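Sample entry (346 residues):
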Amino acid sequence: MSRLRTSHAFGWASKLRALVGGCWQRQGPRRSFKIIDSEFRIELESLLRRGEIQRFEKLARHRCDLYGMRGNAAWQRRVARAQLKENSGFADIYLYHRDGFIREEALRSIEVLDGPIAAFGLLARLNDWVPEVRDAASATLARCFSTSSGDVLAPAVWAFLTKRHLWNRWSGGYEPFVEDVVKHCGLVDALSVMLLGVSRKGASRVFRVLSRSPAFDTHLTAIASDAHEPHLRAAALTCLSKARVIWPLAIRKKVWMDGPMGKPVWREAFGSRPLTAEPDLIAAIANGLCDRSVLVRNAAIDALILHRDNAKFRPLIAKSIKEPEAEPRPSTRMRLQYLARQVTLD
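Predicted structure, serialized as tokens:
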């Protein structure tokens, strides 16, 4: 009998502890959201600017316990809504939460993108696995993108343009987003400054996107002389020499060949526009002839070949074709020999 009473009492005690524990848990999540300080935000932004996206997301979720919270999901959502109403600064971190309801609530609470963390979180939610979150992200992007600073958007947009081929759930389409990027002059300026810096993955893709914007023309001279990547310097110099910017359209068009079988060939389509700025082309070509990269030097010689009939370029041509046989690079030597045959100096 005593054993029955003991077991019965133990059962009631366990139920009482569970009830008390449940009431205690309703005061807040078992693992509460950690408020991050400014140093941690700086660390996250530095990872984002360096393009370490996976490490950035993992660190944000781990440090803030965004995927390890336990307890009542509905209560956690109420706590998140209360925190977002009290302080909208939580929204940029809640964009990476495991719960789609909290991510959606964070998106609806954003009025201004005040940092790269929020900007990248917004773009990442456009590829979210929950359709309702993607719709909320599209509405937030339409509301906040044009009014946000270019310096804030630049790291996130760079990361998206680099990885957009991996985002198959992108809502709204890639081309409309590119049009928004091109129209944002502050963002074009910020991305152009990033092209001048250290080597970054996806620089060619960003260069092609920025080529659609007339605001990018004023940065071509600086890119042709100071960009870290040689192919960017060569591409910018080619645009300056031709006074025209060309970019691929990510589509293919059918071209009929004049062969005996008449088979069509699919070729990549390109868009183009004339330059809106008038750069100092002579100085740009002279700088390219002295470049350390053979790719840039070849682009400078191609520019001289293109403008060989212009008298302003005769001093540069005479200086470059003095000893074409001494050039060790075959590609450069052949260009110089062709230029020497085409030009008759007085």
